[in-house]
Amino acid sequence: MSRNDLEELSSAIEDSARLIGAPFSRDQVWPVLTAYGDAVPNAMIAFRVATDARHEGELDCRISLPADADPYGVAVAENFVTETGHPIDSLLADIAKRCPIDSYGIDFGVVGGFKKIWAFFPQGDFQSLARLIDAPSMPAALAGNAEYFARHGLDDRIGLVGIDYDRRTLNVYFGELPEECLQRDNLLAMHREIGLTDPSEQMLRFCAHAFGIYATLSWDSAQVVRLAFSVMTPDPLALPARLGPRITHFVRNVRYGVDDPKMVHAAVTSTGEEYYKLQSYYRYRPHMVNLESSPDAGAELA
């Protein structure tokens, strides 16, 4: 990709960061853009903001990569990720040996720099828990909670995984959810069974329209750390959710992907804090949203 094209994307990231008061750091952004720049012309590119305190003052950017890319090798070579002998060092390679990979993705923040690598499985070719559990570097918590996921009909519905090298956690995304999975009593049970606070009525209404769920696990806990529910909608401000002033301002003023759908994730933390993440697209690629039921999912929420 030409330097001018990368400069244009960098400028778009800086403009978007300004909307939420995030201090744009070229020193953090430019090395990542140049390292993965060859993929940018055909990539899905998205910006993400969140309402919780941990993400205050941060804008994350996601860029998709083709299946023949080596996102981890690049990250290590560019010193975005430091290998320490932790199982996370080999997790992506272990997954690629066992599961078909349709594409990859990376996440980085304007403040925090490089954070995550995503592995997307082929559309409609969901992977099973058993196949992922077989990876020797997988957090033991995945096998330890296999019965929990199976009980809620999720054990063979994995569409992608995300590896957070910054926080040493793993996100496992489930799609084509069973209808009963999103019923109120089941939503409450899913949270209670892993020790999370009951969602508010507002969040229960939101979760009932989800097309996907992702679970966060770590190597340091036997428990599922977090559940998040994902909705696609052309109008996030119509959702039964309090997105807060920063995200509301972002939605109303972002210059990019105005006519594209937005993805909203909702979760409850272990302390009971409810928060939302919004993903807005600089360049939308429907096939890259691997768990999406349709571009109009969530359009009728009120």
From TrEMBL:
<dbReference type="InterPro" id="IPR033964">
    <property type="entry name" value="ABBA"/>
</dbReference>
<dbReference type="Pfam" id="PF11468">
    <property type="entry name" value="PTase_Orf2"/>
</dbReference>
<dbReference type="GO" id="GO:0004659">
    <property type="term" value="F:prenyltransferase activity"/>
</dbReference>
<comment type="similarity">
    <text>Belongs to the aromatic prenyltransferase family.</text>
</comment>
<protein>
    <submittedName>
        <fullName>Prenyltransferase</fullName>
    </submittedName>
</protein>
<keyword id="KW-0808">Transferase</keyword>
<dbReference type="InterPro" id="IPR036239">
    <property type="entry name" value="PrenylTrfase-like_sf"/>
</dbReference>
<keyword id="KW-0637">Prenyltransferase</keyword>
<dbReference type="InterPro" id="IPR020965">
    <property type="entry name" value="Prenyltransferase_CloQ"/>
</dbReference>
